Fold:
Amino acid sequence: MKILIAVDGSEYTQHMLDYVAAHAELFRPDQEYAVLTAVPAVPPRAAAVIDKQTLSEYYAEEAEKVLQPVRAFLDARGLKAQTDFKVGHPGEVIAKTADSGGFGLVVMGSHGHSALGNLVLGSVATNVLAHSKVPVLLVR
Structure:
């Protein structure tokens, strides 16, 4: 199975990775893994005055801050994964990538907000659940 692991560098990502490591029966080295992080876009007015190379380097640096520790964590457990980042709203980016990439499962951490909290604060997990056709495993 092809599994998309969505990460944001938060403590919730670490909890999710601990879950992955503790469940070797579900997450085996013979499966295909892709790790994705979404970097929020720089506001259009600011992006208009920054040259494209600088903007691209900024996005790559921000993504690498999140991806490097995840890559090390998975490598230490014998799980090989391709890593990638996309620019945009995290919920939309994850859902689109899951649907278009042929994934069988999305795994992501969840902050565990209440329904009211999701209404007020919004939720990446809620957005992914609402827009992706791929099953999602949320780890709280």
Notes: Confidence is low (pLDDT under 50) at residues 116-121.
